[in-house]
Specification:
By secondary structure, the protein is of the alpha/beta class. Helix content is about 40%, strand content about 10%. It has 15 helices and 14 strands.
């Protein structure tokens, strides 16, 4: 990787962990769902590990899927981020906000204010929304994909234009001349698109990094076009090195197509480890989150392997006949890993304890196993860094910081301290202020 070092961001959701049943872990305070002090502790732990940023997801309708699962989201990503930023000094933040249900001026004002008060440590995960229940909360219906992404292009451009509408050097605050700010450098933008518009200006000066960093998540052609044009960081959903390399290259090509340097866009692969001194301890830890709905997962594992499985099979490894019939489902990229684990002789229960149905690869075992996974992917060029999803925040963050991070540092793969003050510094991307593209909604 030519001496480059990996970047690490961390998922920060509901105060419990990335596992939907993390709230049931015995060491978790059940009040953490509404306890921002817990979020602050976790942010400070991540900062102690020199992680580059925290990533706050969002969803605009009910996210709780069953009685035994907690919602996966923060109370509000903007408010939560503001509180965590106030109690940290270097770590960056990326908050998710929809281009479908926010107006450009609202977004520009909130995000730039957060960027200024945090000292230039804020990013925006700009997403469209396709969930009908979310639309219903706004008294609307979901538009088609082309319309949603056309609006997204306009929203991001107008937001960036508003960010730059208070020009650099406008704020002088000179008592001798009596001039607070030069109004000739604080001008309306007067942008009108097909879907959104704004007059401006926005009366907020630049932050230390100029303006917030744009993030994107998704690999569809529409998402890639949006990311290639605007994003500096992309969160991927990959399960193999080969697929991650392909997705990363797609992102880089999209940036080149938009006339940008592909080095200016960083691709992050997800990782959902469970770390314990031994493999068995790690499996048992992960298992506590799998057990509440393990009977539903058995059938899904059968579909992944192309064989029939029931709850009666849970405590047995696959038979010789089952293994002979089993094959990876080509429509599910997680299936190959599930088949690999099954062939190692684990019981069906333990196969599921390996986290093979989770959203990202799940190294299960001692810290070195997670470090080895990250090193292999990074050195293969599969990603620029990782989006780390702790199973349980209460102890999972500290375990990663105290056990995995030192291994990566000793191997020369991860930095030992922050080299700069802003999120752009942390990601190694250029300063930007204002819009440098023509308004269009392609």
């Amino acid at each position: 990787m030519n001496g480059k070092r990996m970047l690490i961001g961390m998922q920060m959701g509901n105060g419990y962990g990335s596992q939907s049943n993390a709230w049931r872990a015995p060491n978790v305070d059940l009040k953490n769902f509404v306890n921002v002090d817990a979020h602050v502790r976790y942010a400070q732990a991540a900062e102690r590990g020199k992680l580059q940023f925290l990533f706050l997801p969002d969803f605009l309708s009910q996210s709780q899927k069953s009685n035994h699962e907690a919602p996966k989201l923060t109370l509000d990503p903007f408010i939560t981020m503001a509180i965590m930023a106030r109690e940290t000094k270097r770590i960056g933040f990326a908050a998710t906000a929809s281009t479908t249900f926010y107006e450009p001026y609202n977004l520009a004002r909130i995000l730039k204010a957060l960027d200024v008060v945090s000292g230039g440590r804020v990013g925006w995960n700009a997403i469209t929304t396709s969930d009908p229940a979310s639309a219903a909360n706004y008294g609307e219906q979901i538009a088609d994909r082309d319309t949603r992404y056309a609006r997204a292009h306009e929203v991001i451009q107008i937001v960036q234009a508003l960010w730059g509408s208070w020009q650099e050097g406008a704020w002088t605050a000179d008592r001798e001349t009596g001039i607070f700010a030069d109004l000739s450098k604080i001008q309306p933008i007067n942008l009108q698109g097909r879907y959104v518009a704004s007059r401006g200006p926005l009366e907020i000066p630049p932050s230390k990094q100029g303006q917030p960093v744009i993030f994107q998540a998704g690999g569809s052609p529409h998402s890639l076009a949006l990311a290639g044009r605007f994003a500096s960081a992309v969160i991927g959903a990959t399960f193999t090195i080969e697929d991650s390399k392909r997705q990363r290259e797609n992102v880089r090509r999209a940036a080149e197509k938009a006339g940008r340097d592909p080095e200016g866009i960083k691709f992050f692969a997800g990782i959902m480890p469970t770390i314990a001194p031994t493999k068995r301890e790690a499996l048992d830890r992960r298992g506590q989150f799998v057990e509440p709905n393990i009977h539903q997962r058995v059938g899904y594992l059968g579909m992944m392997l192309g064989i029939s499985l029931t709850s009666d099979d849970l405590d047995n490894p696959l038979s010789t006949h089952q293994l002979a019939s089993a094959h990876a489902n080509p429509s599910d990229p997680r299936s190959a890993k599930a088949l690999e684990i099954a062939r190692e002789g684990w019981s069906v229960r333990d196969i599921l304890y390996h986290g093979i149905i989770d959203y990202h690869p799940s190294p299960i075992g001692p810290a070195q196993l997670t470090a080895d996974h990250m090193q292999e992917w990074f050195e293969a060029g599969a990603c620029d860094g990782f989006w780390f999803c702790p199973d349980v925040y209460e102890d999972g963050i500290d375990t990663f910081v105290d056990e995995v991070v030192p291994i990566l540092q000793q191997r020369g793969l991860f930095h030992k301290d922050y080299e700069g003050e802003t999120l752009r510094d942390h990601l190694g991307i250029e300063y930007q202020y204002g819009l440098n593209l023509p308004v269009a909604s392609d």
